[in-house]
Write a structure and sequence with these properties.
With 429 residues, the protein is of the alpha/beta class. Helix content is 41%, strand content 17%. The chain has 2 domains: 224 residues, Rossmann fold (3-Layer(aba) Sandwich), CATH 3.40.50; 166 residues, Rossmann fold (3-Layer(aba) Sandwich), CATH 3.40.50.2000. An 8-stranded mixed beta sheet has the order 3-4-2-1-5-6-7-8, with helices on both faces. The protein has a 6-stranded parallel beta sheet with strand order 11-10-9-12-13-14, with helices on both faces. The protein starts with a strand and ends in a 13-residue tail after the last helix.
Length: 429
């Protein structure tokens, strides 16, 4: 099977955005298939290609994957117009490539939603089997975050519907996403949940003495957040909790924020103006380096803005990195991940928009180190039992292989097995 894989944000293990697309591509190759990865460029990613771009494109091979990279350097600091233009250019170049290339199946992963356009074109004009992976629900998520432009929302809704209806199968990363796909009329047999997963080899608990972190005393209790610093991440909640801790004289707890994003300068400015000496900022780093930093941490911060669409509609990489590393998780919003944490006793949950409760959760873990370590052990067991990325990659390949069979539209859930193990379902209202 020759797979044409569209992912605008692809990176190998050397980049900061390394993860699912690389590992899933490698698993396809290990099982005898060919992969052509079509991506954009980014200063935080490493596609494996280093030669200069020619006419806005470069083409090469990395770890057995053929990589086609467009010169469209994306940044979290780009404005809406710039990002929209880069999304559109990637989609248009991708459509041209998909209409000319020779392959058996086309796979597209959002975000952005426009990443599905090459798949729609290939399915419509070349009758190629198309599988669409949905990482966020559109336009539900932008609407929940305050977008009101009816033309944009209408266009998103139309593109979402066209993507789902053109695809032979859809993969959702969270239970709410799968529910959303099915709510748009896609048959339940043609949808499956395969969440983000755990790299159990890269992220693992440290045996023996833990490494040090520059600027943080070794006797500090360290809670780490590793991810984007944007509006959706709700990191003001961390600074609110830091203020509560400082007011209580808890100078033994440090909150470490690793990453980048449009709001990072404002967060740093706020921490400085309020004298929050218990908050430490670090730049985004390659996953290999991040894994070592996490071995020093005591807990992971699973923080998002208090938006209902996030409760069952997200599958954050950081959560799976935390539990793989054997960290107790502090979660500040309800939903399926909060349910996992409670069910498996691998962390604590705090009510959203409640700084005192957030601070209390941090103090509880800091004051009970043995309990915190036991939570971390259970977190690692959960990672191994439910979210091993190698198992999820096999289920992904099973789904793509089944699509190419004569009865490819049937029994996708059985092909994916217990990818959800079982899937938590959204409560009925």
């Amino acid at each position: 099977m020759r797979v044409l894989y569209f992912c605008q944000y692809f990176s190998t293990r050397k980049g900061s955005w390394y993860g699912r697309p690389y590992e899933f591509s490698r698993r396809l190759i290990e099982r005898g298939h060919e992969v052509t990865m079509v991506c954009g460029s980014n200063t935080r990613s490493a596609t494996g290609l280093e030669q200069p771009f020619i006419s806005g494109r470069r083409d090469g091979a990395c770890d057995g994957i053929r990589v086609v990279e467009f010169d469209l350097n994306y940044s979290n600091y780009d404005g809406v117009a710039t990002r929209t233009w880069k999304f559109a250019k990637y989609a248009l170049r991708g459509i041209t490539f998909a209409l000319r290339e020779d392959y058996d199946l086309i796979f597209c992963t959002s975000t952005p939603l426009t990443a599905g356009l090459p798949g729609i074109a290939a399915a419509t004009f070349r009758r190629k089997p198309f599988v669409f992976e949905v990482r966020d629900l559109w336009p539900e998520l932008p609407k929940a975050m305050g977008m009101t432009n009816p033309l944009l929302l209408g266009a998103m809704s139309a593109l979402e519907w066209a993507s789902y209806r053109s695809a032979r199968a859809c993969i959702g990363l969270a239970p709410g996403i799968v529910d959303g796909i099915r709510a748009r009329g896609v048959d339940a047999d043609d949808t499956v949940m395969i969440p983000n997963g755990c790299d159990l080899d890269l992220f693992a608990p440290k045996d023996g003495a833990r490494p040090s972190i520059d600027g943080i005393d070794d006797d500090q209790f360290v809670a780490v957040f590793a991810g984007a610093h944007g509006r959706a991440n709700g990191l003001d909640a961390v600074l609110d909790a830091a203020g509560e801790l400082q007011a209580k004289g808890r100078d033994d707890i440090t909150l470490l924020l690793i990453g980048d994003g449009k709001l990072k300068p404002a967060l740093e400015a706020r921490a400085k103006s309020e004298g929050l000496n218990n908050v430490v900022f670090r730049d985004i780093m390659p996953k290999s380096e991040l894994a070592k930093v996490m071995q020093r941490a005591d807990a992971g911060l699973m923080v998002l803005a208090n938006i209902e669409a996030f409760y069952y509609g997200t599958s954050p990489n950081k959560f799976f990195d935390y539990i793989s590393n054997g960290l107790a998780v502090i979660n500040n919003y309800p939903g399926w991940l909060a349910g996992l944490i409670t069910e498996h006793e691998c962390g604590v949950t705090a009510a959203p928009e409640d700084p005192a409760a957030f601070a209390d959760a941090l103090m509880r873990l800091a004051d009970h180190p043995e309990e915190t370590k036991a939570m971390g052990v259970r977190a690692r067991k959960l990672a191994e039992a439910r979210f091993d990325r190698r198992d999820l990659a096999d289920r992904f390949v099973d789904c793509l292989e089944r699509v190419l069979r004569p009865a490819g539209k049937a029994d996708l859930d059985s092909a994916a097995g217990s990818a959800v193990n079982p899937a938590p379902t959204r409560p009925q209202r």
